Amino acid sequence: MSGPLTWDVQTLIAMQERGDISSYEIVRAFLGQIAKHNTQGANLRAVIEVNPDALWIAQALDRDRARGIWRGPLHGIPIVVKDNLDTADAMHTTAGSVALSEHRAIRDAEVVRRLRESGAVIIGKANLTEWANFISDHMTNGYSSRGGQTLNPYGPGVFDVGGSSAGSGSAVAAGFAVAAIGTETSGSILSPSNNNSLVGIKPTVGLVSRTGIIPISMSQDTAGPMARTVADAARILQVIAGVDGADAATLSTQPIFPNYLSMLTAGGLAGARVGIVRGYYEGGLSGDEKAIYEAALRDLKQQGAILVDPIDLPVPEENENIDVMVYEFKVALNHYLSQTVYTNPHRSLADVIRYNEAHREIALKYGQALFERAEATSGTLTEAAYIERRLRDLTWSRDEGIDHALEANRLDALLFPSYFGCSIAAKAGYPSITVPAGYTGEGKPFGITFTGTAFTEARLIHLAYDYEQATNHRRPPALEV
């Protein structure tokens, strides 16, 4: 079966090169899939807004190609971006909130600018767990007051879609786009990638610019690719990674960025030392999921990996502490809102809280407990409790955690089932990649996650690609095309 549910970047570029398909035809096919299943059919509500210029942009790309001009490695490729990334076009940027329903950005986020420069067609904005799941302490994954409830195409209304990049995950799995951009503060790329049978890369904080993205935490926020294959995710990471003078975190990155595409070769697992972390998911897996994970470990060994099992990481209870995010959110969001266009009436977190209170029926289905907790902080990051917690997080996640485990056991990477372990990597600011590993008897997707130290995305891609190519687990959902 060839079409929006299975097309990948390499296939579509090759088809365009041969003249078998145009960018216009590609975009039309994906728009057709959105029409079938976004608000009717499976009613996935994965796309919160469609780009009205998408077909015009595709036609312009076709004119360029006819003259022998290729914009870049994503020429004519439809991509959805999470609706917390600024787009300087007719679409809004709202974080899924009715409070920002009329907000339009005046310039592209740096990630979006790089995608457009590479030839990608931003086909639409993806729904998300509202405010990237940092408004309420009990919000359902995939729900936003503006976009409604996003569903998982593998089991609409049955399987959790994951959060907070829920729409990004659902959209790619459902054939609404070839790939997507999600954002992660703690698990928000890895979770929906796992749940929608996708490859998700959560980069090292500082590898990808955060400029023009509605924030949560300066310490942990990052954008990253979500795609159906490791190759596609690597291609997109190659495009969006880079230094941005407006984002201090990117100035700390390594000056030479690796060629991630060179990692798309066999043999990545041969001789690789992979640490198996057991203590982070006790009681969290079903019988089928445990069986899939153990089968994945056997597959890794068959490909030549050396499994160091088990690896102990310090107290998983530290995962649950969100103090750093609470303190940083007010500072980060106030700065973002202060830079928005003057017609946006909400210039601070306090403004949004007041709006939500005045429109409780539509804005506060799940309350705003996290907003209120963040607003109660000083907004200056001078609290000793914040500084001590931030330093403790770094010690726990890096010095006593990931780096210690890697160095003490001479490991290339750590391995977790599903997206377990996302929090320790998030607090460290370190990279992870999730890759499909199979399905339960009910058809629920399940993946495995490789995690490494800072700026080891290339190594993780090599490991994940070798596993993916050896097992070829992923299959599309049963949706009408």
Short description:
Pfam families: Amidase. The chain is an alpha/beta fold and 481 residues long. Helix content is 36%, strand content 14%.
Structure description:
The protein is an alpha/beta fold. The protein has 16 helices and 13 strands. The chain has an eleven-stranded mixed beta sheet, sandwiched between helices. The chain has a two-stranded antiparallel sheet with strand order 4-5. Strand 2 (78-82), helix 4 (110-117) and strand 3 form a beta-alpha-beta unit. The chain starts with 8 loop residues before the first helix and ends in a 10-residue tail after the last helix. 56% of the residues are buried. The mean pLDDT is 96.
- Alpha-beta classification: alpha/beta
Overall pLDDT, averaged? Answer: 96
Parts with pLDDT < 50 across at least 5 consecutive residues: none
The count of DSSP E runs of length 2 or more, i.e. the number of strands, is 13
Order of helices and strands: HHEHEHEHEEHEHEEHEHEHHHHHEHEEH
Please supply descriptive tags for the structure shown above.
about 475 residues; alpha/beta; eleven-stranded mixed β-sheet; two-stranded antiparallel sheet; 16 helices; globular
